[in-house]
Amino acid sequence: MATAAAGPLLGCAATGGLQPSGVRRIAVLGAGFAGVSVAWHLLQHTTSSAPICVELFDEVGVGGGASGASGGLLHPYNPKGKLLWKGAEGWNAALKLLSVAGTACSDTSTTGEFGSTIAPLAWKRGILRLAKQQKHALDFQKNVNNAASDESKIACLGGPAARELVPGLEIPAEGLALYIPQAINVHPQRYLKALWLACELFSRKASTTDCPGTQAVLRNYRVGSLTELKGSYEAVVVCLGAQAMLLPELVDKLPLTSCRGVVAQLQAPRGLRNVYDSQAPNLLFGTWVAVQGERDLLLGATKDWGSMNASPNVDNTEATSALEKLMDETAPFYPSIKKWKVKGWQAGLRAMPPRSSLGSLPLAGCIDELVRSSQLGGYSEQIKNTASTKWWLFGGLGSRGLIHHGWLGDQVAKAVIYRNESLLPQILKQW
Ligand SMILES: Cc1cc2nc3c(=O)[nH]c(=O)nc-3n(C[C@H](O)[C@H](O)[C@H](O)COP(=O)(O)OP(=O)(O)OC[C@H]3O[C@@H](n4cnc5c(N)ncnc54)[C@H](O)[C@@H]3O)c2cc1C
Ligand SMILES: *[C@@H]1O[C@H](CO)[C@@H](O)[C@H](O)[C@H]1NC(C)=O
Question: Which InterPro entries does the entry link to (predicted)?
């Protein structure tokens, strides 16, 4: 493997001092669920003869995009209670990454299953999905019956059982809810920072034992175009979420629709009795309640289709309208929500993929052709010289980044390492 000359950017080659030959420099753009997962999985392929050096680029830092703003809800089912495409694989891989992250940030005395008990990376509360229409309730029943044979413990609950699970829940006696007891909610920022820490620890250990040259470097840098990275890397993996659409090489070429979401951080005021029960599951009914601790929860999320505002900041106007919408949606099911106080806001931009008969599937594959076609006219000479850089895309994670990031991140990393697109499901090449 030829080691590419160091580009205009200081990276692995520049910071590593004496480089063992054969280092494979790979740039991953975007430090959200997709990018950090790909970085972790790439590093797992490091060897003594071909050590991996991953440079992770993010203009904000780890978890600065949609991932950090998300509700962190994780379960493998669609709204009808059916397993998602690769749902079982995605679920297992996500749990594995959570445990990797938990180990990395573990502190000797206070470690729970997923990180410290004081600042947990995730909560195992389960999710209760409420049927908004009778039709959905019937779907729940059908799918629970179909799933009865697998080891999933999903259950269809009537109104009284649901109310027992979530004190204060308003659901008619004849209502139905889908209970997913194994579902969890992660603290997205903590989880991502811990997973990146795992990457750093892993590479440090590998480089000081049998794979010198292995590195994981975070670069706070805004990538303006793919062209500027040309020649410096063996491969570049674009994991920029909705902002992948802004790269000049990809603009108007990806079948993605952006959708901004705003989430309220709520806190139970002092003196509020019957705060959300410590064992009660999160709620999902289109809008969702993700409980983060004794007195904290997230209430989200709005959907502003077509917005390209990726800012995590929420101004007063946006906050007022979001709060009204979220409260109106939630109060019929859980009236006490009105007593909770707004502590803060978070927001991000989803990259929504097209809908297919298998549901909304992420985008993944090689984008060499897109990158090349964007540069015919003027750049052809340069492209010839840099034909060895391979370009990849992993995105379009929509509203379900967590269920897809682990398994697919692993597949993408393999495709990158073996320079073989056939290792990725063909249906994900949706451009
Ligand atoms: C409000 C909200 C709630 C959600 N709730 C859930 C949930 O409960 N469960 C779930 O599974 N999913 C949820 N999602 C969806 C989930 O957040 C996304 O699917 C996921 O975050 C996408 O991850 P990503 O890594 O592809 O993109 P992102 O997380 O957006 O990461 C892209 C990164 O690229 C960086 N970046 C962008 N442009 C550049 C550039 N030019 N140069 C350098 N860096 C750049 C950004 O700073 C960002 O960190 C939610 C989404 C939103 C918006
Ligand atoms: C790429 O992967 C596919 C699927 O595993 C395999 O059949 C094929 O031989 C691989 N191609 C190369 C060039 O390694």
Answer: FAD-dep_OxRdtase, FAD/NAD-bd_sf
What is 257-352's CATH topology? D-Amino Acid Oxidase; Chain A, domain 2 (3.30.9)
Q: Where are the domains of the chain?
A: 12-68+188-255+358-428, 257-352
Q: How far is the CA of 201 from the centre of ligand 1 (A)?
A: 24
Smallest-distance ligand from the CA of 418:
2
- CA angle (96 as vertex; 423, 74 as ends), nearest 5: 95
Q: What are the CA-CA distances from residue 189 to residues 61, 75, 113, 309, 407 (Å)?
A: 11, 18, 17, 20, 20
Q: How far apart are the first and last CA of the chain?
A: 30
Check residue 19 and report its DSSP letter: P
Closest Cα to atom 12 of ligand 1 = 400
Q: What is the pLDDT of residue 278?
A: 80
CA of 31 to the centre of ligand 1 (A): 9
Distance between CA 210 and CA 198 in Å, rounded? 18
Nearest ligand 1 atom to the CA of 58 is 44
**pLDDT tens digits, one per residue of 158-196:** 999 999 999 999 988 788 899 999 999 999 999 999 999
pLDDT-derived band at 142 (thresholds 50, 70, 90) equals: confident
